[in-house]
Amino acid sequence: MHPITTALPATLCYLDGEYTALRDAKISVLDRGFIFGDGIYEVVPVYGGQPFCFEEHMARLARSPSCRLSTRFRSPNGARS
């Protein structure tokens, strides 16, 4: 394993509909978002291990004019939005 990979924190990330360890996350160089810089940014704060206003954040994300979601997001506790 590359040294930088082992230095990454053991946090989760959401990639392609799955939660995975950050150190295991990989994006293809042919990914459209990688090539063209497509992306959507939304922050969901977490207090006491619980996402704050998760449904409201996901609803706002879905209303974004530039958002064309082909997958549905799932909160870490399994709830879908």
Q: Summarize the helix and strand pattern as letters.
A: HEEHEEH
What is the topology, as strand order, of the major beta sheet?
Answer: 1-2
Q: What does the largest sheet look like?
A: 2 strands, antiparallel
C-alpha termini separation: 35 Å
Q: What is the overall number of helices?
A: 3
The CATH homologous superfamily is termed Aminotransferase class 4, branched-chain amino acid transferase, N-terminal domain
Give an overview of the whole structure:
This protein is an alpha+beta fold and 81 residues long. The protein has one domain: D-amino Acid Aminotransferase, Chain A, domain 1 (2-Layer Sandwich). 25% of the residues lie in helices and 15% in strands. It contains three helices and four strands; from the N terminus they run αββαββα. The chain has helices at residues 3-7, 32-36, 54-63, and strands spanning 12-15, 18-21, 46-47, 50-51. The chain has a two-stranded antiparallel ribbon with strand order 1-2. Strands 3-4 form a two-stranded antiparallel ribbon. A hairpin with a 2-residue loop joins strand 3 (46-47) and strand 4. The longest helix is centred in the C-terminal third of the chain and has 10 residues, at 54-63. It is flat. The termini are far apart. The mean pLDDT is 77.
Compact description:
The protein has 81 residues and is α+β, with helices and mostly antiparallel strands. The protein has helices at 3-7, 32-36, 54-63, and strands at residues 12-15, 18-21, 46-47, 50-51.
Helices, strands, pairings?
Elements: H1 3-7, E1 12-15, E2 18-21, H2 32-36, E3 46-47, E4 50-51, H3 54-63
Antiparallel strand pairs: 1-2, 3-4
